[in-house]
Design goal:
Number of strands of chain A: 6
Number of helices of chain A: 6
Oligomer: homodimer
CATH class of the largest domain in chain A: Mainly Alpha
CATH architecture of the largest domain in chain A: Orthogonal Bundle
CATH topology of the largest domain in chain A: Arc Repressor Mutant, subunit A
Radius of gyration of chain A: 20 Å
Helix content of chain A: 25-40%
Largest sheet of chain A: 3 strands, antiparallel
Strand order of the largest sheet of chain A: 1-3-2
Order of helices and strands of chain A: HHEHHEEEEHEH
Chain lengths: ~170, ~170
DNA sequence: CTCAGTGCAAACCGTTTGCAGAACG
DNA sequence: CGTTCTGCAAACGGTTTGCACTGAG
């Protein structure tokens, strides 16, 4: 209810520090957006964020949300995702396992996070074999989550009747 | 030079078979688009395709290219990619290692293909641990390719000066 | 001949940008 | 107070869609 309640999530202060380091103003809107992102562990779209901010009594334009997310991503406090839905999602990188990967259910769209320690060795092998210097990776496994399988969901098959490999 | 030269790439016939199976007409345009996709092992954008078709004397609208690519993807002869460039790329799945992954250079944008057999065990482990039923995956490793490293390229760092992990 | 496909141009939609007015420092 | 930000709305760019016309079967 307080209209000028300060951003409450402690991690918002980190963002404020980043902004000050960059000589950028720490505005009420930027703190509000950061607070909304840090308030959940979900993967939020810009529309999700706008809705939550509005519910919290904040009236912040989409442009400002986009501009603030850019800053959050640059600060490395937030990570951008594209799960092929036609828009981006954002998740903060604090208080959880860093550098996790994603299981994405093709039925319900739900996202589960997993650790994939095997990828370190894989990246080292690839670097050794190809000379490529890896910086970051993106692993997404698409399929059916356990609840959707239990509910009887299956994946449609529409390809050529003759397996391609037989060509 | 022949204006109605038949689509030449043998794999185009496979696409024709798919279309017939689905009761869809095999049109000159569909064959031309398929031929352009099968003619290279590169990862082509729709603009790339339109350009190549035009160079080959074909005058095919973008809408038809998009609609034909949908069919090619449905037939499983072609795979769609999104490397975060703001548009999609397409690559055929014939005559090359199936189910490969991608190394993407952040400097020159070049894409290299690699096999990652480790991922099979990883997916099985994840399935066992979470009950998730994997269908397909997408692994992209971003970094610097060997030539760009040799040319002295480095990756810009802009995040918080204090490592996040220290929080 | 009939029905689906094609081409054009307009619509779409997530995202970006320009600009007048409001805040930060 | 000067500089940067904000909000609005218009612009953008890849993709999709509506519709009259063409072409495959």
């Amino acid at each position: 209810m307080p209209s000028d309640a300060p951003a409450v999530h402690p991690f918002v202060r980190l963002f404020g520090r980043y902004l000050r380091e960059q000589g950028l103003p720490v505005t009420q809107q930027r703190e509000a957006v950061a607070d909304a992102v840090f308030a959940t562990d979900e993967h939020l779209s810009v529309d999700d964020l706008e809705r939550r901010l509005r519910q919290g009594g904040e009236r912040i334009g989409k442009a400002t949300i986009y501009r603030t997310l850019d800053l959050l991503v640059k600060s490395r406090l937030v990570q951008e995702h594209d799960f092929g839905e036609g828009f981006k999602r954002y998740e903060h990188r604090l208080s959880r396992q860093p550098d996790h990967d994603h299981l994405i259910c093709l039925e319900c769209g739900g996202v589960t996070e997993v650790k994939s320690p095997e990828l370190r060795a894989l990246q080292e092998r690839v670097a050794r074999e190809t000379g490529f210097h890896p910086s970051r990776h993106k692993l997404e496994i698409y399929g059916l989550c356990a609840p959707c399988q239990a509910a009887g969901a299956t994946l449609a098959e529409e390809g050529l009747t003759c397996p391609i490999e037989a060509v």
